[in-house]
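Researcher: I'm preparing a figure for a lab meeting and need a structural model of a single chain. I don't have an experimental structure, so a prediction will have to do for now. The sequence is pasted below. Please return the structure as tokens so I can convert it later.
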Amino acid sequence: MPGEKEINITLFDQLTLLERIERELERGGVETAKKEIEIMKNEINRKLYQKPPLDGSK
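Model: Understood. Here is the structure written out token by token.
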């Protein structure tokens, strides 16, 4: 079970993602927000599937 620090990190990351989407909606509307979402998904996937994993397990 994650500790408070891990939970806070996750919540801050989620807040950052929402803020990025909000900025894109204000700046360029739905299409630019969709592009930003796609970029964020690619960034998350890279972190999920990187070698070696972030947690150091193999």
